[in-house]
């Protein structure tokens, strides 16, 4: 089974954040690979990964990084595959990583989600994958319907909560 998505982290310390994406892909039955590669410590490995990702069957890359956060942009500079950047909150409340990922030069786009937003990155990756795949479109629609159901149920539970001055 070939991976459709690659989750790349600058360090294994990013796994607690990126685990949400991995669990989502497992739930959706999307084959993925997950690796730690550093733009600064393992640049040759990053280059090899980026240049060979398409041949491995990868269609979307999710790259997470904190602090200087060069990894998503470096990968995007070496591939034509879509890259989704996940800024990791490691210093400066993650703003340094967010700005480093979102402020790419013209010609090197990186779609960027919120700080520690790996679940949204995974959902966006699935949306990209589903553009020409009805089965994936159906999985995505069911997932979003489940989100709606959870809110409806939460409101029903809130209606049962009693407070002296509550009006609904």
From TrEMBL:
<dbReference type="Pfam" id="PF00731">
    <property type="entry name" value="AIRC"/>
</dbReference>
<feature type="coiled-coil region">
    <location>
        <begin position="126"/>
        <end position="164"/>
    </location>
</feature>
<protein>
    <recommendedName>
        <fullName>N5-carboxyaminoimidazole ribonucleotide mutase</fullName>
        <ecNumber>5.4.99.18</ecNumber>
    </recommendedName>
</protein>
<dbReference type="GO" id="GO:0034023">
    <property type="term" value="F:5-(carboxyamino)imidazole ribonucleotide mutase activity"/>
</dbReference>
<feature type="binding site">
    <location>
        <position position="14"/>
    </location>
    <ligand>
        <name>substrate</name>
    </ligand>
</feature>
<keyword id="KW-0413">Isomerase</keyword>
<feature type="binding site">
    <location>
        <position position="41"/>
    </location>
    <ligand>
        <name>substrate</name>
    </ligand>
</feature>
<dbReference type="InterPro" id="IPR000031">
    <property type="entry name" value="PurE_dom"/>
</dbReference>
<dbReference type="InterPro" id="IPR033747">
    <property type="entry name" value="PurE_ClassI"/>
</dbReference>
<comment type="similarity">
    <text>Belongs to the AIR carboxylase family. Class I subfamily.</text>
</comment>
<comment type="pathway">
    <text>Purine metabolism; IMP biosynthesis via de novo pathway; 5-amino-1-(5-phospho-D-ribosyl)imidazole-4-carboxylate from 5-amino-1-(5-phospho-D-ribosyl)imidazole (N5-CAIR route): step 2/2.</text>
</comment>
<keyword id="KW-0658">Purine biosynthesis</keyword>
<feature type="binding site">
    <location>
        <position position="11"/>
    </location>
    <ligand>
        <name>substrate</name>
    </ligand>
</feature>
<comment type="function">
    <text>Catalyzes the conversion of N5-carboxyaminoimidazole ribonucleotide (N5-CAIR) to 4-carboxy-5-aminoimidazole ribonucleotide (CAIR).</text>
</comment>
<dbReference type="GO" id="GO:0006189">
    <property type="term" value="P:'de novo' IMP biosynthetic process"/>
</dbReference>
<feature type="domain" description="PurE">
    <location>
        <begin position="3"/>
        <end position="151"/>
    </location>
</feature>
<keyword id="KW-0175">Coiled coil</keyword>
<dbReference type="InterPro" id="IPR024694">
    <property type="entry name" value="PurE_prokaryotes"/>
</dbReference>
């Amino acid at each position: 089974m070939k991976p459709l998505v690659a989750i790349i982290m600058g360090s294994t310390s990013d796994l607690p954040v990126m685990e949400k994406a991995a669990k989502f892909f497992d739930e959706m039955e999307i084959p993925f690979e997950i690796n730690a590669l550093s733009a600064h410590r393992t640049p040759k490995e990053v280059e090899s990964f980026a240049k060979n990702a398409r041949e491995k069957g990868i269609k979307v890359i999710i790259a997470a990084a904190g602090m200087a956060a060069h990894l998503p942009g470096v990968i995007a500079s070496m591939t034509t595959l879509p890259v989704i950047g996940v800024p990791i909150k490691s210093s400066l409340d993650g703003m340094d990583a967010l700005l480093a990922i979102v402020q790419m030069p013209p010609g090197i786009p990186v779609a960027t989600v919120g700080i520690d937003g790996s679940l949204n990155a995974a959902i966006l990756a699935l949306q990209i994958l589903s553009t020409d795949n009805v089965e994936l479109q159906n999985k995505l629609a069911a997932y979003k319907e489940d989100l709606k159901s959870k809110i409806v149920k939460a409101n029903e539970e809130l209606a049962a909560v009693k407070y002296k001055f509550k009006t609904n």
